[in-house]
UniProtKB/TrEMBL annotation:
One of its GO terms (biological process) is zinc ion transport. It comes from the Bacteria. The chain crosses the membrane at residues 22-40, 60-78, 85-106, 112-133, 153-170, 176-194. This is Cation transporter. It is a multi-pass membrane protein.
Amino acid sequence: MAGCGCNTAPSTQIISPKFRKALWIALLLNALMFFVEIIGGSHARSVALWADALDFAGDAANYAISLAVLSMSLYWRATAALLKGITMAAFGLFVIAKVLWSWWLGVVPEPMLMGVIGILALIVNVSVAWMLYAFREGDANMRSVWLCSRNDAIANLAIIIAAVGVFGTGTMFPDLIVAFIIAYLGVSSGYSVIKQSLRERKQSKVVMGHNV
């Protein structure tokens, strides 16, 4: 792009081939689990599973964005992270609205299917989180990737607990509570990523100004 040539702040970190490979694996697994949970959530009538399915879709898109900007300057990596942070926060707000709507309808989910899909999703997300753990202290782009995988693993543990709660109480409230927790994680993590990415964008512009 014009104005973004040799004088832009170059990436000072060496991009690990392991990180790139981990992102590709995470992208494929998240895309697969989106379809599993969107179908399973529909059959189980679970808000938590639907929320997690949308989260899988968002994460797959985020991993794709991360791969696209991996070798670019800090400014563009931070810009991608800013987009992901906004997406994470918007997703959380959407889930909160979905929780309120489901509470109004009063539909009780099917706990056994919830539990089975929750366990499968947990296995996938723990595997992804384990792959990305070593890169959690990188720039905003790397941090956003790690936060996505960490949040997903926490959410799946909560979904399994919610399935037990629905089975034990026969009510929808454990499902709605877990969906709200997923929403909170999305909003808080998105806010954290937005703050760091804005700071890195500002820093990169200062370096660009010095290089002009």
